[in-house]
Known about the structure:
mainly alpha, Citrate Synthase, domain 1, CATH 1.10.230.10, 3-stranded antiparallel β-sheet, 16 helices, binds s-citryldethia Coenzyme A
Amino acid sequence: MPSTTHVLKGLEGVYVLESSISMIDTEQGALYYAGYDVRDLVERSNFEETIFILLNQRLPTRKEYLEFTSLLRESLELQPLHIETIKHYVSRTDILSLLSLLMVLEGGGKKGGDPAEKRSGIDAVAKMASFYSAILRIRSGGEYVPPRGDLNFAENMLYMIDGEVRNADFARVLDDLLIIHAEHGIPASTFASLVAASTLSDLYSSIAAGILALKGPLHGGAAEASYAQAMEIGNPERVRAWLESALSEKRKIMGFGHRVYKMYDPRATIVKKIITGIENYMDSDVKRLYEITVALDAYGQEYLAPRGIYPNLDLWTPILYRTIGLPPDSFTALFAVSRSAGWASHILEYWMDNKLIRPLHLYKGQYPKKYIPLELR
Ligand code: SDX
């Protein structure tokens, strides 16, 4: 019988698969998608190309890029049943739950296991984006707006939310956010999608499993939780006192800490750089959020950095989301839109040499026990 030392809680430090999709350099603090530095992709590429890189682990040729972007745009189109489903549920549940429901419905009747199913991967990411945009639009009282052929992915997402072509700078910020959140190795949500995919469930249902795992505040829900935390703090002058009391109550500070980065999250550094480029778009509320975040970043490190707990991207991303006008309860759903590219890529890669994921547990109860009939108890 193995000893309790065999139990690695939370699979901490456990390698569960080999992959060529991304590399997190925890020495230098850098993130690579199929070898391409995510900083280069933010500076010089876009989310469409990033999806291609994750699905194919290489850059597209010019011809492939044009074909790929038109497939994505085609898949952005929604059907009447999608719109009816959104209209029926949009005021009855939260955005992320509705997004996962729509993905489950997309998976209806489909089969899993074919690593060549790249078309489904492309379709799933595009559907996640148009579901997200249509949910926001319909929730705010608008009618569904189909995507336009002359707009790129991020521009179409904002257009499908607002029904008009917005500020090009906002679309660039959204595109950067989509690139930054697209992939990060095997966090809980990717592992959840792989567990589902390893049973040969279909790609859409496996993505739905990823969405539901992303929801929690320890993972993808952290950006919404970090925004709520900043609202609770209220102003930058209160940060230090709030922090001392939160830490004395053993609260987890949202936007701090990471299972893999025991340093400043390199994605947070990228987000901070993007923020400096859009300061003139910040309204007074976002400016206050920014000041609170600056103070929390500094004071939080004073208390937590000595324990290897540093700011992560979720501390800073609410500033970008709010500057481009996205509702505070939609941040995790946007994270899911972006990460569906990573989930789809890992699912298809895993199906190349599929193995059912089925770990063990160490039973610590007694057995066998004698059954006593109810009338004798
Ligand atoms: C994401 O894995 C990924 O790649 C995820 C992600 C991705 O791109 O997919 O990067 C996205 O999820 C980023 C993380 C967002 N989450 C948060 O910001 C929520 C706050 N963070 C913590 O909940 C925590 O840091 C985790 C969950 C992110 C990581 O925690 P671990 O590795 O499971 O470590 P732990 O919870 O066991 O903490 C170890 C110690 C504990 O103290 P002790 O019990 O030993 O005394 O560190 C403390 C923790 O209490 N600690 C914190 C803390 N994070 C850890 N204390 C206060 N505030 C924190 N944020």
